[in-house]
Structures are given as structure tokens and as C-alpha cells.
Design goal:
- Pfam families: APH.
- This is Aminoglycoside phosphotransferase domain-containing protein.
- It comes from Jhaorihella thermophila.
- The chain is of the alpha+beta class and about 325 residues long.
- It has 2 domains: about 5-90, Phosphorylase Kinase, domain 1, CATH 3.30.200; about 100-335, Aminoglycoside 3'-phosphotransferase, Chain: A, domain 2 (Alpha-Beta Complex).
- About 50% of the residues lie in helices and about 10% in strands.
- The chain has helices at about 5-15, 60-70, 100-105, 110-125, 135-145, 145-155, 160-180, 220-230, 240-250, 255-285, 295-305, 310-320, 325-335; strands at about 20-25, 35-40, 45-50, 80-85, 90, 185, 195-200, 210, 215-220.
- Strands 1-2-3-5-4 form a 5-stranded antiparallel sheet, with helices on one face.
- The two termini are about 35 Å apart.
């Protein structure tokens, strides 16, 4: 079987980018890798996505969701060429101005960038979504239990199967009651400052470039809002979080009385899942820098658990999950 470099060369030979210079781009937590291609004659650039199927990657969902988002007037990258058999895409280069990097240079733009992020969600939720699997209470409660399977287990040595089962049962009921949407929308599920690009030369919601949306499903309108405002990788000021929730509710006409409990419950679900995912990345994939993000995720979870909507599980979780002390975090790095 041909190696990846030979397959890439063959893929590019069938495009206008066969003679392009190639340079690696930063990857993500997946098995995908990226390169920036530069045309030596024109200086024009594109991005190569290398997503090996043998490692469980599949570019077809990315293609489908990108086409949907672009059809809705949003700035997902244009797809110049694709090879779904071997897992290659040639994409429009949306640049390097991730929200997170822009805000390091220009913290004065924080409000403007988050407003633009909210406007993308409002525009996306105004259109009928494609046919996708549902991010439903059964799946969400099991994914939240990764906090037991990976985080708790990694720290104390066991997941406490009895308490885990009790949590899943209670949390599923809670999600069914407080976070089942009347009208499901497309949720990108990883909508945060490291996956959003600032494109100020464009207008309206198109000013935000979108990445890492291939795992999109149907879910509650609050889910991507939580992803954006309860960011595992950067501190979002409470005043920004409050203002952006207000902006979202105003733009979408959401019922505030029902929306705020759903926001807290979905925040807890997401942060519990991330605790487990980051612990797994540290223990099983040799990526200890994700463990360093766990204290922020823990703080976000505690904030969510303070909401009355989480009363059915808050005491259980606080008793069952160990705090991310320096010693406990070190245990997650030593596996």
C-alpha cells in the first residue's frame, strides 16, 4: 500500500496545486493533520487536510457540513478538491487569525468578536438544518459520564460504577426535562475561540470563519453558545458571557425562562465530557498539555452546578469527582 506522502503527491497532481510549496500547520486533538500550500508563481494559498481513514477519520461529514454552512451564507472553507477514499481535502485558506490569537493582540476587540460569533449562531439557527443524528439525552448523559470513566478513574483508580449509573439515570432525566429543544438546530459541537477565524473584510455573519464542524449533530440552540462562552481554553469574562447570552436571546427570540436552565445543564454536560476527554488525552495519547486545561473546566463545571436546574446531580458529582489538585493532575500525566 502506498504511503501517505505518495498518496498526497498523487492527489495534488490532479489539481492546480501540484507544484505548490508545502508547510505544516498546527493540528488539533484528532488524527488529522494540515498543510498550507503556496503557489510559488502567484503566492496564492490553500490548505491540505490529511485525514487517514485507517485512523478512523472520514472527510465526508466535513464536506457535507461545509456545503450546508456555505449555502447558509456562512464562511466555511470552500472545497477545491476531495478524495474521500484516501481522506484528502484541498480547502480554501481562511488565514491564521483565530479569535484566540486576535484577542491576544487586540483585547479591545473582545466584545466585537464575540458579538460576531453570536450573530453566526443566530443566522445558523434561523435556517432549517440538514438531516443529522440527534445529540439526544441518552448520548449526552453517557458522554458526560466520561468524567467518571476517564477523569475520576485516572485520579483514584476506579469509575465507581454504582454512582456512575445513578448519575447517568438522573442526568438523562434532567436533560430530557430541561434541555430537549422544541426545534433542534445544527450544533457544531466545538464552537470556540480556537476554531473561529476573524475575517473583517467580509460582512455580517460571514466575518467569522468556521472550522472543525465535521462532528455536527442536531441539538439544543444553547449548546454552541455554551461552547463559545464557557471556553475550556481561555477565560471569557463574566460580563461578556452575560452580555452575549442576552444578545443571543434577543436575536433568536428564545424564551429566557427556559433558555437559562438549559444553558446551565448543557454547560455541565459539556464540561463533564471535556474533563473525561482531556484526562484521556493526557493518559492515553501522550498530550499532557490538555491536562493543564482541566482546572478551568472544573471551575466552569462548578459554576454550572450552582444553578438550581442542576440540583438533582450537583451533590452527587461534587462527592464523586475529585478536585483537580496539582497531585491529581500529575496522576493524569503519568499514565
Amino acid at each position: 500500500m502506498a504511503d501517505r506522502d505518495s498518496l498526497i503527491a498523487d492527489f495534488l497532481s490532479r489539481t492546480a496545486w501540484a507544484g505548490a510549496r508545502r508547510a505544516p500547520l498546527a493540528g488539533d486533538a484528532s488524527n488529522r493533520r494540515y498543510e498550507r500550500l503556496t503557489d510559488p508563481a502567484t503566492g496564492r494559498t490553500a490548505v491540505l487536510m490529511d485525514a487517514p481513514p485507517v485512523k478512523g477519520e472520514d472527510v465526508r461529514p466535513f464536506v457535507r457540513i461545509a456545503q450546508f454552512l456555505r449555502g447558509a451564507g456562512l464562511s466555511a472553507p470552500e472545497i477545491f478538491a476531495e478524495d474521500t477514499v484516501y481522506g484528502f481535502l484541498l480547502l480554501e485558506d481562511l488565514g491564521d487569525d483565530l479569535f484566540a490569537r486576535v484577542l491576544e493582540r487586540r483585547p479591545d476587540l473582545e466584545n466585537s468578536l464575540y458579538e460576531a460569533g453570536i450573530d453566526v449562531l443566530a443566522a445558523l439557527h434561523a435556517v432549517d438544518p440538514p438531516d443529522l443524528p440527534s445529540y439526544d439525552p441518552a448520548l449526552m448523559s453517557e458522554l458526560a459520564a466520561l468524567a467518571f470513566d476517564k477523569y475520576r478513574s485516572g485520579v483514584v483508580g476506579d469509575a465507581n460504577d454504582g454512582i456512575r449509573a445513578e448519575f447517568v439515570a438522573r442526568f438523562r432525566q434532567l436533560l430530557e426535562h430541561a434541555a430537549t429543544p422544541e426545534r433542534p438546530v445544527l450544533i457544531q459541537r466545538d464552537y470556540h475561540a480556537e476554531n473561529l477565524l476573524w475575517l473583517p473584510e467580509r460582512s455580517g455573519p460571514a466575518r467569522v470563519g468556521l472550522l472543525d464542524f465535521q462532528d455536527a449533530m442536531l441539538g439544543h440552540p444553547a449548546y454552541d453558545l455554551v461552547s463559545l462562552l464557557q471556553d475550556a481554553r481561555r477565560d471569557v469574562p463574566p460580563a461578556i458571557e452575560t452580555a452575549m447570552i442576552d444578545r443571543f436571546v434577543t436575536r433568536t427570540g428564545a424564551d429566557r425562562a427556559a433558555f437559562l436552565p438549559a444553558y446551565a445543564v448543557l454547560g455541565a454536560q459539556r464540561n463533564l465530557r471535556i474533563l473525561g476527554v482531556f484526562a484521556r488525552l493526557g493518559m492515553e495519547h501522550g498530550k499532557p498539555h490538555y491536562v493543564d486545561l482541566i482546572p478551568r473546566v472544573w471551575r466552569l463545571l462548578q459554576h454550572d452546578l450552582d444553578h438550581p436546574a442542576l440540583d438533582p446531580v450537583a451533590t452527587l458529582l461534587r462527592a464523586a469527582l475529585p478536585e483537580p489538585t496539582p497531585d491529581n493532575l500529575q496522576r493524569l500525566k503519568r499514565q
